[in-house]
Amino acid sequence: MQNNHPIGVFDSGIGGTSIWAAIHQLLPYEKTIYLADSKNAPYGQKSKDEIIALCIKNTELLLKMECKLIVVACNTATTNAIQELR
Questions:
Q1: Which of the 8 DSSP states describes residue 84?
Q2: Whether this model's pTM surpasses 0.70
């Protein structure tokens, strides 16, 4: 059975679009959603707790959109929040 739910990608801005493009190139028939949290960018100037909270919010939004996979395309988000997100 095929899972038609989208792959979600999030970043604090538009830098992760290169990762989204690579996913789209490798998996052209997959639906994707790109979430750019420009409102809260840049993440690098925020505390670890703020970054974790923003990442959880982004992840929860993508889960509500029924993403089957979520890619954290933001290095600051990954280094500060990936353990909590997993």
A1: H
A2: yes
Q: First CA to last CA across the chain, in angstroms?
A: 25
| pLDDT score at 47 | 97
Element (H, E) at 7: strand 7-11
> pLDDT by residue (tens digit) across 4-53?
999 999 999 899 999 999 999 999 999 999 999 999 999 999 999 999 99
Name the residue with tokens 């409102």: 39
At 81, which amino acid appears? A
Do the strands 32-36 and 69-72 form a parallel or antiparallel pair, or are they unpaired? unpaired
Angle between helices 48-64 and 75-85 (to 10 degrees): 70
Alpha helices in the chain (DSSP H): 17-26, 48-64, 75-85
Q: Is the dihedral of CA 13, 15, 18, 19 positive or negative?
A: negative
